């Protein structure tokens, strides 16, 4: 029940925040900030967050096979990475024209580090298609998880910038921050629970047998 509530809450918050941001950024005259925010929220927040959720979804598994769930997970990850790259590239070009660095702020630094971690997760995901290894699997999952956390932090810091203050009042910014925090906690908690479960399943059975023998000896 706890996992079901977490997943539903995460889906709802991810979609709700994305809808609010897209509605605001799609009609802006400020093309550089608007495009950057649009591509970033779609790719690096919604797609990345959903890619973490769908792979272990309790309800999608009843309609879609495991292979198709993994394929959906991969597609969301690649689309998120591509959209994020477009958003970062668009903003970087604008910043370079006015000779202003983009990655010296908390927002920019967290966004860049998160993007690189997601890129690493996608690359390690392709490697997992060829062969399965516990260490690689854990690295892949942790890179995706940490990448999403950093990207969520980047969005949190973005709500302190002039763009957000121009477009929303303080009350709406406050609720966007709370929603972003709640979405991050929901996604991370759900993925962490699934990661712990999967690690247990991937561990060699001999380890558990060895532990069982030790426990039996202690009881004796």
TrEMBL record:
Superkingdom as given in the UniProt entry: Eukaryota
Membrane-spanning segments: 6-25, 37-59, 71-90, 111-136, 142-163, 175-193
Main location: membrane
Localization annotation: Membrane
Lineage: Eukaryota, Metazoa, Ecdysozoa, Arthropoda, Hexapoda
GO terms for cellular component: membrane
UniProt xrefs under InterPro entries: CYB561D1/2, Cyt_b561/ferric_Rdtase_TM
Keyword ATP-binding belongs to the record: no
Swiss-Prot/TrEMBL keywords: Electron transport, Heme, Iron, Membrane, Metal-binding, Transmembrane, Transmembrane helix, Transport
Native organism: Drosophila melanogaster
Named cofactor requirement(s): heme b
Listed name of the protein: ascorbate ferrireductase (transmembrane)
Cytochrome b561 domain: residues covered: 5-204
One matching Pfam family: Cytochrom_B561
Class of the enzyme per the UniProt entry, highest EC level: translocase
Gene3D superfamilies xrefs: 1.20.120.1770
Xref: PROSITE patterns: CYTOCHROME_B561
Record EC number: 7.2.1.3
UniProt topology in membrane: Multi-pass membrane protein
Molecular function via GO: metal ion binding; transmembrane ascorbate ferrireductase activity; transmembrane monodehydroascorbate reductase activity
């Amino acid at each position: 029940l706890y996992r079901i509530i977490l997943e539903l809450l995460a889906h709802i918050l991810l979609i709700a925040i994305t809808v609010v941001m897209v509605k605001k950024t799609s009609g802006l005259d400020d093309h550089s900030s608007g495009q950057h925010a649009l591509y970033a929220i779609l790719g690096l927040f919604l797609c990345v967050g959903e890619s973490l959720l769908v792979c272990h979804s309790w309800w999608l598994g009843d309609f879609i096979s495991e292979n198709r769930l993994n394929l959906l997970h991969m597609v969301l990850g690649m689309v998120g990475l591509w959209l994020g790259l477009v958003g970062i590239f668009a903003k970087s070009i604008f910043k370079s024209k006015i000779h202003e660095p983009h990655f010296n702020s908390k927002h920019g630094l967290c966004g860049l580090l998160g993007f690189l971690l997601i890129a690493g997760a996608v690359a390690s995901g392709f490697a997992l298609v060829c062969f399965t290894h516990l260490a690689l699997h854990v690295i892949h999952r942790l890179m995706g998880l940490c990448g999403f956390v950093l990207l969520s932090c980047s969005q949190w810091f973005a709500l302190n910038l002039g763009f957000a203050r121009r477009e929303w009042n303080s009350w709406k910014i406050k609720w966007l921050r709370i929603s972003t925090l709640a979405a991050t906690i929901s996604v991370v908690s759900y993925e962490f629970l699934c990661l712990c479960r999967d690690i247990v399943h991937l561990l060699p059975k001999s380890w558990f047998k060895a532990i069982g023998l030790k426990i039996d000896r202690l009881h004796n």
